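Hi everyone,

Forwarding the result from last night's run.
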Amino acid sequence: MFLDHIGYIGEDIILPNIEVKDILESFIDKDRLKYAISSLQLREYLNKKYLDLSAGFRKRVQVAIALGKDSEILLLDEPFTNIDAMMIKPLKDASKGLKTK
C-alpha cells in the first residue's frame, strides 16, 4: 500500500490511550524498536498510558513511530513542537540513527 512508504510527524496525532509499549510495538519494525526506545529515552514510560504523558513525551512517541518504519518519504509538520530544548539534538541524532538501521 502507498501509505506504508510514508512516515509522518504532525502537530498532534491521535493515538489510542493504551500503554506506550503497545503503541510502539504496533507501529515500529522489531529490528528498530530497541533503538527507538533507548535513543528517544522512552524506557521508563513504556508502561504508562499515552494520554498520561506530557505533550513532549507524546511527541517523542510520535517521532519514534514515524522514524521506526522503513519509510521512503518522511513528512514533518512541526516535529519539535512541545519538545524540551535539551532534547532536540538527541531527537535529531535518533532520527539519523533510525533511518540508517
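The mean pLDDT is 81.

Cheers,
N.
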